[in-house]
Design goal:
It is globular, with a radius of gyration of 19 Å. The C terminus is likely disordered. The chain is α+β, with helices and mostly antiparallel strands. The protein is built from 14 helices and eight strands. The strands form two sheets. The protein has a five-stranded antiparallel sheet with strand order 4-5-6-7-8. Strands 1-2-3 form a three-stranded antiparallel sheet.
Length: about 375
Amino acid sequence: MPDVPAALPEVPGVLTADQVRETVTAIAAEQSADGALPWFRGGQLDAWDMVESAMALDVGGRHDRAAAAYAWLARRQRPDGSWAAEYRDGVVTAPAVESNHAGYLAVGVWHSWLATGDDALVDRLWSTVRRALDLVTAMQLPSGAVSWALRPDGTPDDTALLTGNASLYQALRAGIALAGLVGEEQPDWDLAAADLGRALVERPGAFADRSRYSMDWYYPVLAGAVCGAPAEARLAAGWDTFVVPGLGVRCVADRPWVTGAETCELALALAAAGRVDDATEQLAAMQHLRADDGSYWTGLVYADDARWPVERTSWTAAAVVLAADAIAGTGPAAALFADPGALAGPARRGVPDATPGGGVVRG
């Protein structure tokens, strides 16, 4: 689908539509002619962050650019449904198979369909999504959690990561929605999503202890696994540990380092919990990372008043765009993050309902 003028999100007092457009343009400027979207020109590329950047391009009406990114991923998918953990300039630099990188394409394709209604894009990418999520389900452990990576012998590692699993919960449900659109139901994904959702809520011991990291705090809310009163309780429990008033969110609890992407992801979790004013406050807090061209620095070591790392990443900018869209509710794909318990979309091709079930816990 060609680029079209888009009604861009605007968050009064925080970001104008023109500023969002500048940020989308800054993301597009990092894209290579073959569609690859690295962290920055000459930097590393991974499938998860590339999908996030592609979603921001769709929010900004740069649909051809987003489609080119997804086409790059489709060409690079390996026979087992995976992508390498890292590429640089098209060359694999870390070949490991990680479940989270495989799963997130489903979220991007569903987001793109919500933004554009482009059935042809879904048709082109459906087999890629199916192979990727089949790999994810094959990596599910007896606990219901999904292994973070495959060992060299091709068997799933025993370790599962909470943030990655919350993202995979969202990915499986997006895949289920896509399956409804194309009329190819995937009952194995339904079962995997249900068991993973239960693990996220009821089986904390199934996941490695990475509670120092803010993502493990908010991501189950962002992804729609924890909703309602339990979501409120979870957000309240970690607030004082991770939120630095006026600056954003610590990436790691015991370090004086706030990061833009984590702050925007907390904003997405707050929007999902119905706390739009608090989400807006967090989006505003991280604007000290904005550069003159609309790109964003990754983080700030506030004890030293120093940006670190000294890089402006496409995925940080993308998180800003997605948070602004969820808060403003401007685009047709905004509800993917603002209301993750719904994952709603109109039916097509004779399918009576393309909407998978809601979140696991509701207050």
